[in-house]
Amino acid sequence: MARINLTGMGVALVTPFKNDKSIDYNALARLLEYQIKNGVDYLVVLGTTAETATLTSGEKAELREFIAERVAGRVPLVIGVGGNNTMALVEELHTIDLTPFSAVLSVVPYYNKPSQEGIYQHYKAISEASPIPVILYNVPGRTGVNMTAETTLRLAREFSNIIGIKEASGNINQMDDIIKNKPSDFMVISGDDGITFPLLTLGAVGVISVIGNAFPREFSRMVRLALEGDYRRALTIHHRFTELFSLLFVDGNPAGVKCLLHAMGFIENELRLPLVPTRITTYERIRQVLDSLG
């Protein structure tokens, strides 16, 4: 099984919508070209930022096909396949065409609040069903349960096709524990733009980014500088974006980044319920920060 190199910056793609809430494929095509031309290392399709929970199965299939055809192998693609019904996920992994994708990103089961053993058994089933490598995704703020460092390390050691974790627990000590004790080829990826710089200094390999939708060149440069050990210049770029890190999430994700992309002229400022656009005050503040960034 080929292993994807997750070093650098991956971008969690948004799904642009038109005013009638249908998918805006023209805007998506422009966004894909913008990402590739500005140095993104890989793209994550149908993740949280894509509002995947509001897409029909038909729309998800269309998006997989459209993005794979447009990207045409120019950068690796990671596909989000996650949920809280393990048997349904196993069936999905057996039936959808994963040929264009280099890895699966699968979130800790949400709402059910499984035990650590339940989380382990869930990922064991996914690992055994997936024909391509698997990336764990720990985001307790969304799922309601934290996957501990112990469980992450157990999975990393026991399943060779579980190649990394997108860690968005916000717990630096937990992330450092994983980095310190993981197998040498297991990759820890930041799931939070705002703490990417400190995580890189601890040994993370990169980030799956939200802000990268809007600033792929600048944020990927920060990541590369930090990976090269040029912390001074990387920190300068990190500090340029610190206010945006907060603004993009104050009204939820992807409301903030869609607002930013709208202000930059890429997409309509449209989301699907239950998500709604940012408040006017947030939108105006994002525009002010965007102007200040030039």
Topology diagram in text:
Elements: E1 8-12, H1 25-37, E2 42-45, H2 57-71, E3 77-80, H3 86-95, E4 103-107, H4 116-129, E5 134-138, H5 140-143, H6 149-158, E6 162-167, H7 172-181, E7 187-190, H8 196-202, E8 206-209, H9 216-227, H10 231-240, H11 242-250, H12 255-263, H13 280-293
Parallel strand pairs: 1-2, 1-8, 2-3, 3-4, 4-5, 5-6, 6-7, 7-8
Taking strands numbered 1, 2, ... along the chain, how are they ordered across the largest sheet? 1-2-3-4-5-6-7-8
H/E series, N to C? EHEHEHEHEHHEHEHEHHHHH
**Structural class by helix and strand composition:** alpha/beta
How many β-strand stretches?
8
Rg for CA atoms: 18 Å
The percent of residues in helical segments reads 40-55%
Low-pLDDT stretches are none
Largest β-sheet summary: 8 strands, parallel, barrel
Q: What is the general shape?
A: globular
Strand percentage lies at: 5-15%
Q: Report the mean per-residue pLDDT as an integer.
A: 97
Number of helices: 13
First-residue to last-residue Cα separation: 44 Å
Kindly describe this structure.
- Helices cover 47% and strands 13% of the residues.
- The protein is built from 13 helices and 8 strands.
- Strands 1-2-3-4-5-6-7-8 form an 8-stranded parallel β-barrel, surrounded by 6 helices.
- The protein starts with 7 loop residues before the first strand and ends with a helix.
Question: What is shown here, in short?
Answer:
The chain has 294 residues and is α/β, with parallel strands linked by helices. 47% of the residues lie in helices and 13% in strands. It has helices at 25-37, 57-71, 86-95, 116-129, 140-143, 149-158, 172-181, 196-202, 216-227, 231-240, 242-250, 255-263, 280-293; strands at 8-12, 42-45, 77-80, 103-107, 134-138, 162-167, 187-190, 206-209.
